[in-house]
Amino acid sequence: MSTLVKFKIDGEECMAEAGSYIVEAASENGIYIPTLCNIKGVKPRGSCRICSVLVNGRPMTACTTPIADGMEIENNTPDLNDTRKAIVEALFVEGNHFCPACEKSGNCELQALAYRFQMLVPRFPFDFPVREIDASNPKLIKDHNRCILCKRCIRAIKTEDGKNIFAFRKRGRNLEII
């Protein structure tokens, strides 16, 4: 038997199952919170920070914070949206994300967020480091130039016995999926 809790998002009263994450609870109540690293059914990590919200005035990631009774959540504020926009801008300038396939298909979460936050020109200087393209496997090409390091592939793609296929090495600007 599930327990429902009451909470507010941007002043709107909502209800959801206790223990569900804020991003899920918001979605169930018709409220959009942007994410890039979150995948339904996979334990969240909060690595992209796009889903950052204010919970009772404190910044938290909506994909990793369980909903609780009486929470007051701010999701759609100018400061939060500016922070989200800055994160998207940083992702665009740190790699080659001018993909002809995404532009044609419109099936790109990063592009959709850029449109949502009205990103026309990034505030930051472009930095296109040369990253290797790994075509060693005939069934999978890893283009590190297009990777936004959300780590979804690491968390979601596993062998039949549950072991990770991918991992990451190094840190910061040099982080890469192996």
What would your notes on this structure say?
The protein has helices spanning 22-28, 78-93, 100-105, 109-116, 152-156, and strands at 4-9, 12-17, 52-55, 58-61, 72-74, 133-137, 140-143, 168-169, 176-177. With 178 residues, the protein is α+β, with helices and mostly antiparallel strands. The chain folds into three domains: 4-76, Roll (Ubiquitin-like (UB roll)), CATH 3.10.20; 78-128, no CATH class; 129-178, no CATH class. The strands form three sheets. It has a five-stranded mixed β-sheet, with helices on one face. The protein has a two-stranded antiparallel sheet with strand order 6-7. It has a two-stranded antiparallel sheet with strand order 8-9. The longest helix is centred in the middle third of the chain and has 16 residues, at 78-93. It is globular and about 50 Å long. The N and C termini lie far apart (42 Å).
Query: Which percent bin holds the helix content?
Result: 10-25%
Tell me, what's the shape? globular
The gyration radius over C-alpha positions equals 18 Å
- How many domains comprise the coordinates? 3
Report the CATH architecture of the largest domain.
Roll
Helix run count? 5
Order of helices and strands: EEHEEEHHHEEHEE
Main-sheet strand order equals 2-1-5-3-4
Largest sheet: 5 strands, mixed
Task: Kindly state the number of beta strands.
Answer: 9
The residue ranges in which pLDDT falls below 50 over 5 or more consecutive positions are: none
